Amino acid sequence: MNRHFKNKHFLDKRFISSVLGLAVAVASSSAIAATDLNVVGSWSSLELHRQFEKPFWSETLPNVADADIQTQVTTFDQMGIPGSDVYRYLGDGVFDVGMTVADYTVADAPELEGLDIPMIASDAETAQEVAQAFLPLAESTMNRRFNSHVLAIVPYPAQVLFCNAPIKGLADLEGKKVRASGRSTGEFIEALGAQSLNIAFNEVPGSLERGVIDCAVTGSLSGYSSGWYDVSSHLLPIPLGGWDYVITAINQDKWQSLDSETQQLIQQHIDSDFSEPVWENARSETARGIACLTGSGECPLGEPAQMTLVETSEKDTERAREAIESTVLPAWAARVDAETLDAWNQSVGQLVGMTATAP
Prior knowledge:
Blueprint: H1 13-29, E1 35-41, H2 47-60, E2 69-75, H3 76-79, H4 86-92, E3 97-101, H5 124-146, E4 148-154, E5 159-163, E6 177-179, H6 183-191, E7 195-197, H7 204-210, E8 215-219, H8 220-225, E9 234-236, E10 246-251, H9 252-257, H10 260-294, E11 308-309, H11 314-333, H12 338-352
Parallel strand pairs: 1-2, 1-3, 6-7, 6-8, 9-11
Antiparallel strand pairs: 3-10, 4-10, 5-8, 5-9
Signal peptide: 1-33
Pfam families: DctP
Protein name: TRAP transporter substrate-binding protein
């Protein structure tokens, strides 16, 4: 069993208060519900939680006829815990269902990096195929590392590149300082000749404005909503940072305590009423964000910005593949075991036409 399940975690006062609040709420509802689920979602301010996670867990699932399911829903940032700790607490049984970006947890589970290798999925359709191919590996990893069972893998929008100076493509990143969105993305950026920096999302606008960094990676709509267009001028709309997949998982002990009928009902509705709508939204969300950032189409969120849209070239695609095969995949392969590599090569690797080999 992973060491995280043997040791008590230090919980700050804010987190303790949140957990106690959840426990009280669940205790008060236990008399009327056969299944109680404490649910912790991803970033509370972003569209994934506001439009999909929260409505599904707080309304859709509890309202299924004869389901007899009661939920209490919050998010990790509202609880005051890092996204990287969500699965640790989930495995310990602090809550029942947890959601966070898989890349946040790779220090504990390097296997999960294989889900979101930069630039291997150029569009939402391919990204969904990658997620489906990776699902068995995600399941075995979550079982072993975090005592959890995978219910869903869904994306944020494509993680694109914002720069505060003119660029024409990936070649222009050489020598620049770039805020990455994960370890593999950082290695990819370094392979392009740029310097990768780890900067918190909310500190990026100030860093771009002061010249601490030249470019930064995030989702197109996230960048628009956070005003990155005020401190950056050029947008390269390729998934340089992958798709920031979010894994929804349930504590394995809790899952095993449910009867098969309840398990099937939960999974069925997650597939049809949560995963499917999120993936459908992903097909248009990146484009909406680009429209809002550049004024190249209708922006449903407000006044469009006027960033310069950088056209993707064949040279960019070739340069990206070279960096992935020569640097990113070997670096990841060195962090995982042979069984993981074989599973990835037989699934995602076959899908995208790449092979991960340890150096």
